[in-house]
Hints:
By secondary structure, chain A is mainly α. Chain A has one domain (18-93): MYOD Basic-Helix-Loop-Helix Domain, subunit B, CATH 4.10.280. Chain A is 78% helix and 0% strand. Chain A starts with a helix and ends with a helix. Chain B is built from 6 helices and no strands. Classes of the chains: A mainly alpha, B mainly alpha.
Amino acid sequence: MSSSRRSRQASSSSRISDDQITDLISKLRQSIPEIRQNRRSNTVSASKVLQETCNYIRNLNKEADDLSDRLTQLLESIDPNSPQAAVIRSLING
Amino acid sequence: MASADKLINTDVPEKDVFALHFLRSLSNLRTQNPLNSPDKSIDRVRKIKKAAYVSMARAAGGNSRLWSRALLRRAAKDDNKSVRFSRRKRKVTWKISSKRRRSNQRAPVVEEAAERLRNLVPGGGGMETSKLMEETAHYIKCLSMQVKVMQCLVDGLSQK
């Protein structure tokens, strides 16, 4: 199943124009808060965008790790009678 | 060959969709693992992190995206605890797909950066570069949405 998907992608990717690549790169650029406007050639800025994207994803993964940690601690120590617990209960059951 | 200018959509659902999926995941965890279970703390953290990624993949559209499909498949394999064998299989898959991808190479400096990105995006190993970028744009939007949801939850629970 995965091999047929890959061959499908190989044939459809030849139809993706360079305009769409540029469009995707600009979309990526917009999604990343740190990246600054780059006046250099398209190739250089494309590689820089991809690099920044890698860093951004690594940061998000790290944040998710830290938040999972904190969330675990908070959920363990939550007092069942507190207002927070009531809010969570209503959100889950509602 | 002139291409049909298909609109590449990278829109993601609203934050409350992610929040709802995540809370449901958490409540399922609670049902399976009552508070006084003998689970080690690090296992609990791992379960919550996994719930975060799985609920994010579901909120983002489940099987409609390559990255979410790959993430959910990986999570299902983890549950069956056949991780070692499936990891070896995946490495072979990457070798085959990189041979196919060579026919669609962009500039080497771009491909080099794309390779690093492939290791970070679920299912990236089998994607051609342009598809990879489309999936990545969607993935990072969803990931940042999920992080926001978790931050809100932490903030809400931290108030005294």
